[in-house]
Design brief:
The protein has 392 residues and is an alpha+beta fold. The protein is built from 10 helices and 9 strands. Strands 2-3-7-6 form a 4-stranded antiparallel sheet, with helices on one face. The chain has a 3-stranded mixed sheet with strand order 1-4-5, covered by helices on one side. α6 (241-275) runs antiparallel to α7 and α6 runs antiparallel to α9 (357-367). The chain is globular and about 80 Å long. It starts with 19 loop residues before the first helix and ends in a 6-residue tail after the last helix. Bound molecules: flavin-adenine dinucleotide (FAD). Flavin-adenine dinucleotide binds at residues 102, 136-139, 144-145, 169-171, 213, 218, 366, 369-371, 373, 375-376, 379, 391.
Length: 392
């Protein structure tokens, strides 16, 4: 793969709006990605393997629990810093960002928000340091966009719960130490349970043959009469709103992360177009290529402003789920379109692993589907503005 020469586009001087802390956090993540992710990521994506050696680095840049308070091992940062960390990581690879998103927003967040003090003390510091890796089990073979229909369930056996069911498409599953699993009790109410590797009847087979997020491990969570200790139930929130609250936090991070992938594609295409000569001049000098590049930077800039404003709303605890849906949908769609255009600018070279664009493009095909599909987020906006539910 080519050396990482990334220069971040900032067409509307967003840097002027960031605090010194935001820039410090972002620059540390940016440097780490250049040093520890870019040189190895193509190889790991090609062999479809998560590079476990970067776990310590992810913890060091604050990617595991950026906004979780420091007394639980988190970085105690604001939501814009969280977003910027996700942007920089996904600039490197969406699969690596997925691992960080799951750990922070889908495992640490529910333990922090819905767990009791004992659970927080037991799990959060280990998850923040990367000593424990986590997974989030919501999706099932027959319930993806409609998680409320889940059939995974547990029964109260007096001194423990008995968990049965299966989860599919679970990021980090193959190597997770703990997983936050959503299951129905005997009354049909959804609760979160912390399931640990090693519990009898719990297995995590890997899902192979993905053309997308190849550097992220995906798998199943299978529960066959798993005895879960009662103290592993998250006591402070139940119902579908509990997992959806986690998804709000993760989707917000994705809205920023996708910008990173788009920035990398744009920067790569711009550099290539200025260097590649055809018909006696750089291809960047042709109007058709300028149209692509000009539209890319316009869309990236709009997405940056959307994410920044959403970050301000998140910091004030005023961001609605529908606002987060709009940003996730828009920014991932934007990144996917930027990746497709950027790939064309590189001609034949665009399909090789010499450049990051094709990998970003394939990765984004998952990002546009997970954490609520492109269609589902549109329906959320539709419901929000009309008051009419078009899901069913
Ligand atoms: C790589 C990867 C990693 C993932 N990681 C996780 C994870 O860590 N944890 C987890 O719990 N899940 C995870 N997921 C699952 C992901 O969230 C689901 O794939 C997603 O929610 C869509 O569900 P589905 O694939 O079952 O599609 P379906 O729900 O079957 O949807 C199929 C199509 O129908 C459309 N559709 C569905 N309902 C409607 C409707 N009402 N109106 C109009 N169109 C509709 C959808 O938009 C989609 O186009 C992951 C998925 C992938 C691919």
């Amino acid at each position: 793969m080519k050396p990482d020469l990334f220069e971040a586009p900032d067409y509307y001087n967003l840097d002027d709006l960031f605090s010194e802390e935001h820039k410090l956090v972002r620059d540390a993540a940016r440097e780490w990605v250049k040093r520890d992710v870019s040189p190895i990521i193509e190889t790991y994506a090609q062999k479809a393997e998560f590079p476990k050696q970067i776990i310590g680095g992810l913890a060091e840049i604050g990617a595991f629990g950026p906004y979780i308070p420091e007394n639980y091992g988190g970085a105690g940062l604001d939501q814009i810093s969280y977003g910027l960390i996700m942007q920089e990581i996904e600039r490197g690879d969406s699969g690596v960002r997925s691992t960080a998103s799951v750990q922070s927003s889908l495992v640490m967040y529910p333990i922090w928000k819905y767990g009791n003090e004992e659970q927080r003390q037991k799990y959060l510091p280990k998850l923040a340091s990367g000593a424990f890796m986590g997974a989030f089990g919501l999706t099932e073979p027959n319930h993806g966009s409609n998680p409320g229909g889940m059939t995974t369930n547990y029964k109260d056996m007096g001194d423990h719960y008995l968990l049965n069911g299966a989860k599919l498409w679970i990021s980090n599953a193959p190597f997770c130490d703990v997983s936050v699993v959503w299951a129905k009790n005997e009354e049909g109410r959804i609760h979160g349970l912390i399931v640990e590797r090693g519990m009898e009847g719990f297995s995590t087979p890997e899902t192979h043959n993905k053309w997308s997020l190849r550097a992220s491990a995906t798998g199943e969570l299978i529960f066959q009469d798993v005895k879960v200790p009662k103290e592993n139930l998250l006591p402070n929130k139940s119902g579908l709103g509990a997992p959806l609250g986690c998804l709000d936090s993760a989707r917000y991070g994705i809205a920023w992360g996708a910008i990173g992938a788009a920035m990398d594609c744009y920067d790569t295409a711009l550099r290539y177009a200025k260097e590649r000569v055809q018909f006696g001049k750089p291809v960047a000098g042709f109007q058709l290529q300028q149209k692509k590049l000009a539209e890319m930077i316009t869309e990236i800039t709009k997405a940056q402003l959307l994410a920044f404003r959403l970050g301000q709303l998140k910091n004030e605890d005023k961001a609605s789920s529908a606002q987060i849906s709009m940003a996730k949908r828009n920014n991932v769609d934007m990144a996917l379109k930027v990746a497709r255009e950027a790939r064309q600018i590189l001609g034949g070279m665009g399909i090789t692993g010499e450049y990051s664009i094709m990998r970003h493009m394939m990765n984004l095909e998952s990002v546009v589907t997970y954490e609520g599909t492109h269609d589902i987020h549109l329906l959320i906006t539709g419901l929000d503005i009309t008051g009419l539910n078009a899901f069913k």
